[in-house]
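Supplementary notes for students who missed Thursday's class. We covered one full example, reproduced here. Read the sequence, then the structure, then the short commentary at the end.
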Amino acid sequence: MARRWNAVILALGAVLGPYSGSARAQDVDFTLTPAEDKRVEARQVVIRASLDSAQRKGTVRAAVRIEAPPDVVFQAMIRCSDALKYVPHLRKCKVRDRAQDGSWLVVEHEIDFGWYAPSVNWAFRAELDADRRITFRQVDGDFRANEGVWQLEPTPDGATTLLLYRAYIDPPGFVPNWLARSTYKRELPQMLTDLRKRCEAEQTLRAQAGKTSR
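Structure (token representation):
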């Protein structure tokens, strides 16, 4: 069940609080400490959470290093076909609307809980800064609040991406406290690990195809 709730939060929309169009509001505002930087370099997922007393809502920050360039990571995060692979229990991902210039999308998600709980439906608008940043906010659906940013920072050689994330999440009232707590502590790291695996597998296929074409 915890894994299913994580799908609701993270299906591209695990995000940060309150949305604004300003450049500063789009920043992740997450500087790694030396200890956190070592953990990221060791391929661990770093999580920081600032939650209410019940530990069900609040701000969460995360960081993970992915051995793939930003364009690979960016595309994996905006394609519904990818989201359906790495987001647990995501049953529907549909682009409702999009800008002709590719600067934004409106996406619908449905998470199927099976017999455990009702499904969660929501739609979010994602503002796209190609290969650099995705900011988004719920436009309709079951969350009380879910809005935020992913930031992609390449290494100097462009081969590796530091993916930073900040989210403010206030879940639907029918989600129990223990389930929300489980998401922050266990399911978020697993979700980001699965995203990394998918991106790195895609990069391996690209590298192999490049060698073959030479």
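Commentary. Residues 177-213 form the longest helix (37 residues). The chain is about 35% helix and 35% strand. If anything here is unclear, bring it to office hours.
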